[in-house]
Queue: 2 jobs
Job 1
Amino acid sequence: MSLPLLFLGSATGVAALIDLLALQREPTLQSELSLSAPLLFGFAAGLALFSADQVQWRFRWQRLSLRIAYPLAMVACAIALDALTLPIGAALIIGPIAAVLLAMMLMRNADARDEADYLTS
C-alpha cells in the first residue's frame, strides 16, 4: 500500500535535485518545483494496481474495495490535477526520506522472497 506513495515522494525528491542542480541558473531553496501530476499519479496508480496482489489484506472488504478504490483515487488525482507545485526545500526533505524507506521496503521484500524460495526448495 505504501509503494505508490513512496514512489511519489522519491520522484519528487529526484525532480527537485535535478531542478536545483541542472535547470536553474540561480538555484534557491525557496523557488517552486512544478511537477506533472498526471505523469506521477498515473505511474503511482499503476504501481498500486499491479502490486495489490502482494498486499496481505486482513478483511474481505479490503480486498474488494481498497484493491480497486486506491488505484482509482490516484487516477482521479491524475485526471483532476494538471500540475503539482511544491517548494524545492520541502521536496528535498521528503525525497530522500521516501527513497530510503522505499529501498528498505524493497530489500525486505527481496529477503522475504529469497527466504520463501529457500524454504520451498
Note: Residues 88-120 form the longest helix (33 residues).
Job 2
Amino acid sequence: MFRKIYKVKGEDVNDFMVMQDIAYHRYASSILETFLFEIGYSKQKLNTLKIGLQKCQEELVHHKPLMFMQNFFLNLELLDSNNNEREISIRTRFFDTNNGLCAISFIKFNWYDHYNKKMIAPPKRMIKHLLA
C-alpha cells in the first residue's frame, strides 16, 4: 500500500464547494504516477523505455463528499494482476482526516509497449512494491 496526503483545491470543486468526480479521477491517476516516480519510473524514464499505461476501465464509488480546503489522504493498493500480469487492477481509497472513507476509485489498466505496439507485463519492481 502507498499513501499520500492532499488538500481539496478550488479547481477540484463545483459551485457548492464539493469535490467533483473529475478531480477524484485526477487524484487517483496522480497518486499512481507519484508511486511510479518514487520507485524509479518517472514519466521521462517511461518515455525513454517507450512504455506507458493504458487505462481500460475506471469506476468511482462515493461514500461522503470532500469539501473545498479539506485535507484528505489516499491509499493506493494493488487488487489484482491477471492475463499474464498484463492487466492490473488498482484501488485508491479517499479518506478524510478523521479516517472516514469518502470515496473509492477502481482503475484497470495495461502496460503498453509503444515501440512494438502491444501489451506487456508491468515492471516486476512495481508489483513487488504494491504488494509490500
Note: Helices lie at 21-38, 43-49, 124-131.
